[in-house]
Automatic annotation (TrEMBL):
InterPro entries: DUF6026 (IPR046068)
Entry keywords, A to Z: Coiled coil
Record-linked Pfam families: DUF6026
Protein name (record): Uncharacterized protein
Organism superkingdom: Bacteria
Any coiled-coil regions, as ranges: 15-49
Amino acid sequence: MSTAQMSRPPQTLYVSIRRDELRQLKDERDQLQQEVLRLRSHLQGQLEQTSGARPALC
């Protein structure tokens, strides 16, 4: 037995944030983006080392 769902329009949520909180969130976002770039670079280096060390199959 399923319950019929009435479709409702999406609701908009409004929040208040202080300027110092916004600045902190932006700083954290920037730090996380830098960390992602560093990890991607590290991973790419690992993949290149692994692919370069494989013996050729004949």
